[in-house]
Amino acid sequence: MSTAKENVEPASLDPDAKAELDRAFEDLYRAHLRDVYSYAYYRVGNPHDAEDLTEQAFLQAYRHFDRARRESDGRPLRPWLIRIAHNLASNYYRDRSRRPQTSLENADPIEARHGTEAIAEGREQLRQVMANLDNLADDRRDALIMRFALGMDNREIARALGRTDGATKVLIHRAIKQLQEEMSDE
Amino acid sequence: MSEAQRLSGSTWDVEHLLSDALRPIEPPERLSGRLEDTLSAVTQAAAEELSDWAEELSESELRALRDPRNWVRPVFAVGAGGAAAGALVLLEARRRGRQQAKGGLRSLAGRVRP
Question: ipTM exceeding 0.85?
């Protein structure tokens, strides 16, 4: 993925306003870098592309930050940021016709259990749940990543996916139910 | 949670498994540095571009730019520039089309000859 450094919002504000905007963006960036990276990682499945996607997401966010802040009416900007990453990830697959290859390197097995057998069993369950997650429809999988990897609530997920709260609740419920059924069948 | 609790009958506690599988991932340290460098570079480039542009304009030009009556001219100029660019693209496309047609026929002829 190439880095598009062009088309970033120019310094069209007066210097004080620009400095304040940059400080606010820095706060946003520090607060949500892990969220955006985690989302990108689970979407694209490898650290290299996740880094590129994260960089692109923040560049695009920077470009529209002033407007987003004005229009947010003080609401948190995390859903907006994740929505940018979500759209970029969708384009990424459209352009490259790829599917994610989520790795379990960073998904530690259940810590509370001990012994190699239990760890192996834990890893097998995680592998199974990740494989089934990968087979879900995109919107279901994305909603679950937002819920479980980022800890977003229904309202935040709804804003990130551009859906109503009710539709998001149903989406998540159906996604979990589908996973449950598929894992029970195995 | 024990294995027995995890699997009540044949029902998986999928939510618990998802919490284990989808843990937040710490971004590599190099990513923070890379992002900060990129953002600094673009903000600096934008600021320099704006400052160069402002320096090139005289005081009277800046005054004229602030006057809304003059805004229609740049808008028209952009429109005319766009139309001219469009016409050039069209001419170039036609020229290439003609060349390709010639080349296409020539190559077809080449294949027909013994």
Answer: no
